[in-house]
């Protein structure tokens, strides 16, 4: 069995530095606010729903990209907002009408409302 005295001290310094840098990077950047039009469209859509587990999890927070079933991409062009790119609410027990407001999500690439009781 080899003792710790065999490993050079520089190795420990480098390992510590690597762990420190990795932990700083993993903290990430603060969440960016959703595009105001995307936020409005999602709230209008949610307002037309009844039942479903999703309604209670969506908050009044302007960071809709952290809401369940939503994924976003950065707005680009130096924008401080993010845009909704995926809305996946499959199997969430949603009922209601599909709001025209979803048409305002002009960066939406995937919409999945399958396996909900309303027959979407």
TrEMBL record:
Residues 36-73 form the Leucine-rich repeat-containing N-terminal plant-type domain. Its main location: other. Keywords: Leucine-rich repeat, Repeat, Signal. Pfam families: LRRNT_2. It comes from the Eukaryota. SUPFAM superfamilies: L domain-like. Residues 1-26 form the signal peptide. It is found in: Cell envelope. This is Leucine-rich repeat-containing N-terminal plant-type domain-containing protein.
